[in-house]
Specification:
Shape: globular
Strand order of the largest sheet: 1-7-6-5-4-3-2
Number of helices: 4
Structural class: alpha+beta
Distance between the termini: 51 Å
Number of domains: 1
Mean pLDDT: 91
Order of helices and strands: EHHEEEEEEHH
CATH superfamily: START domain
């Protein structure tokens, strides 16, 4: 069974600031509840071909995997893929200006993959857990970005 989970939020911060922060994998442990650490395998900054090792906890299990950036349009879109383990995954972020003044950002977070072996049997449970986690993660990112935003006035 294919898993494809898409979540979005609107953040009251300009697109370029949200995209610059979220596209830096070093920040992932700050806004992803389940990500414990990120270690660069290539030199920063993020670019096509960059590789990062992530350690996460999901559904009570420790997961270690390496993502590679396969597409990157700064300020618009970032795609990372891993081919390791029982659940190869692709994560896509998109950002677009939102609101009449364009001073907000609509961000989407999409995770999709094709689990194999035992993971394929648990795909419906994994998809539901991923959906819950993504909602929390985007809410956390929104709160972080908005509390750091300079007051307007």
């Amino acid at each position: 069974m294919h898993v494809d989970v898409l979540t979005e939020t609107v953040i009251a911060v300009p697109c370029e600031r949200v995209a610059a922060y979220a596209a830096d994998p070093s920040h992932a442990p700050e806004w992803y509840e389940n990500i414990a650490s990120v270690e660069w395998r290539t030199r920063p900054p993020a670019a096509i071909g960059s590789r990062m090792a992530f350690v996460a906890r999901f559904l009570g299990r420790r997961l270690a995997y390496t993502y590679e950036i396969t597409a990157y349009e700064p300020g618009r879109r970032l795609v990372m893929r891993t081919a390791e383990g029982p659940f190869p995954m692709e994560t896509t972020y998109t950002w677009e200006p939102y609101g009449q003044a364009g001073d907000h950002t609509r961000m989407t977070l999409r995770n999709r993959g094709e689990p194999s072996g035992f993971a394929s049997l648990a795909a419906p449970v994994m998809a539901a857990a991923m959906r819950r986690a993504q909602r929390k993660d985007l809410a956390r990112l929104k709160a972080l970005m908005e509390e750091r935003a300079p007051a307007s006035g």
